Amino acid sequence: MYLWWRFVHIAAALAFVMAHGTAVGVAFRIRGERNRERIAALLELSSRSLVWMYLSLGALVVAGVVLGFMTRAWGRGWIWTAIALLVLLMVLMYALAATFYRRVRDAVTSRRGSGYRISDEELEDILSSGRPHLLALVGFGGLLGILWLMVFRPF
Description:
This protein is mostly helical. The chain has one domain (2-152). The chain is 81% helix and 3% strand. The protein has helices at residues 2-29, 36-70, 77-109, 120-127, 131-152; strands at 111-112, 115-116. It has a two-stranded antiparallel ribbon. β1 (111-112) and β2 (115-116) form a beta hairpin. The longest helix is centred in the middle third of the chain and has 35 residues, at 36-70.
């Protein structure tokens, strides 16, 4: 059974990265887009991928917990550090991404009379921010940290 749970854990990690890759791709693609309808469509695509991201994250966590019991790893520091890093990463990524995407969504959907509530100049400022780069750096760095802990089990 151990190999099957390990397979599920790794497969769920791959599914998580694949589903999340859509959101990452959209974050970088909208930086160069100025057509509000296209930006809205890209944001919808990103939102739809989040369902699969959270389902795969759930499978990843369940399989990780089962493997923790199977390998008697709960007394080791690396597994608790990996869990703490995952929780921190989730909170940080949500805080960074939610504010950015909320501002972009408001810019492309909020109307005022016959025009948009947020000007083209404000939209330009939002889209040209470095937030997508920061999100990618934090997300990739955090996942590399968790992978390092799981592979090397330093403590």
